[in-house]
Amino acid sequence: MIDRFIVEFDNALRSVLGGAHAHRPTPGSDTQSTSLLDSKECEHAAGLMRVNHVGEVCAQALYQSQKLVARNPEIQQMLDSSGREEMDHLAWCETRLQELGSHASYLNPIWYAGSFAIGLAAGLAGDKWSLGFVAETEKQVQHHLESHLEKLPVEDQRSRAIVHQMRIDEIEHGQEAISAGAAILPQPIQKLMQAMSKVMTATAYKI
């Protein structure tokens, strides 16, 4: 129990303060970093990758809190596995932001705390609702990443490779939640999640 607490606390610190470690190689590492991008394109790409980084900070908080109160050990293990892949995403985005000469969101502690509280509430509602929250979150993230593939500069192959692999992983996480018995969230909750996502996206792009 103590070892688990230390690991989770370390993950929380790395999510908020930086220094995440990836278990898989960064996608697109064999492509050029920034030489083909002008200053405006670098700034735009950094804004989009900062948004993606914030999404992964939130993902860590959500998975950690939901895993904490999951009733079913198999679901707890599934959340833990997905969380490790999300940590890869976090590290990839952090590395890409550094390459672009930019920074993570200064509001990461707020994003993390808010997401942890939301995930805890979803988990306490029961495993099927917790899984439903995962499934809906991953569906919205999938659409969000698809929009970023359209918005990123064509020359920014490294960022595009990262986002592409993130999209594949998020789809798998959502499908796993559905297969495990996720409930469909009520429409008002889905709309609220979409509205909150828009606020986070607009803010994280700049700050």
3D architecture notes:
This protein is mostly helical and 207 residues long. Helices cover 77% and strands 0% of the residues. It contains seven helices and no strands. The mean pLDDT is 88.
Would you state the CATH class?
Mainly Alpha
Strand content: under 5%
The residue fraction in helices comes out at: over 70%
Strand count, sense and barrel status of the largest sheet are: none
At the fourth CATH level, what is the homologous superfamily?
Ferritin, core subunit, four-helix bundle
CATH topology call: Ferritin
The string of secondary-structure elements, in order, is: HHHHHHH
**Overall spatial form:** globular
Architecture (CATH level 2) name = Up-down Bundle
| Alpha-beta content class | mainly alpha
Please state the average pLDDT score: 88
Rounded to an integer in angstroms, the radius of gyration calculated over CA atoms is 16 Å
Uncertain segments = none
Please, how many domains?
1
Number of helices: 7
Q: Give the assembly state of these chains.
A: single chain
Keywords:
Ferritin, 7 helices, mainly alpha, 207 residues
